[in-house]
Amino acid sequence: MKKSGVLSVEMRITGKGLSGAVKQAPVGKKAASPGQAQAKPQQDRLEVSKAAVDFLNQQAKRMADGIQKLGGEKDEEEGKSGLSALYDHFQKQMKVMDKCAKISASISKGNRVPPEDLRYLKQHDMNAYRLAMATRKPKKDPKDEESVLSEEDIREMESADAIQMPSSAPAE
């Protein structure tokens, strides 16, 4: 009895996970049927259809292409590689988180925070703003905190507000 459209495919598992390639058994060899007894099984075998093998090969190729793009693709605007741009993005996010943490700590202590800092915190981390307001300790003589934000951060916030303003205005 011959199965049509089924190939014997061998996948090896190493200590680090699946090996990179899917190997097809030669067409002349038949895969061992489950009913045949083998003296000593040396490895597991899996029978997969040709369509499944093609699908797995396409997925492996897509993943390899994605990794190559991430590692070697140039960013047209800045001329940086994909990994460098990703690093810069995460570094910027960490700076935002650090500023939000400083602002929320000042609020929790009960100190007065500049309105720009409050708006920045609301805009970038609303949950931290809510938590800081809920845990705020009232003081008789609160300290006036200096702004954590740079001039660039304030300009970015104002430009984002200016962009959002016209959308809320009624159209004529």
Written account of the structure:
The protein is mainly alpha-helical. Helix content is 51%, strand content 9%. The protein is built from five helices and five strands; from the N terminus they run βββββααααα. The strands form two sheets. The protein has a three-stranded antiparallel sheet. Strands 2-3 form a two-stranded antiparallel sheet. It is elongated, with a radius of gyration of 30 Å.
Write the layout of secondary structure elements.
Elements lengths: L5 E5 L2 E2 L2 E2 L4 E2 L21 E4 H23 L9 H28 L5 H10 L1 H9 L16 H18 L4
Antiparallel strand pairs: 1-4, 1-5, 2-3
Helix pairs in contact: 2-3, 2-4, 3-4
Poorly predicted regions: 15-20
For the terminal residues, how far apart are their CA atoms?
Answer: 77 Å
**Mind describing the biggest β-sheet?**
3 strands, antiparallel
Question: Reading side by side through the largest sheet, how are the strands ordered?
Answer: 4-1-5
Number of helices: 5
The residue-averaged pLDDT reads 75
- Annotation, overall tally of beta strands: 5
* Shape estimate: elongated
What value does the Rg take, in angstroms?
Answer: 30 Å
Structural class: mainly alpha
Series of secondary-structure elements, N-terminal to C-terminal:
EEEEEHHHHH
DSSP helix fraction: 40-55%
Task: Indicate the proportion of strand residues.
Answer: 5-15%
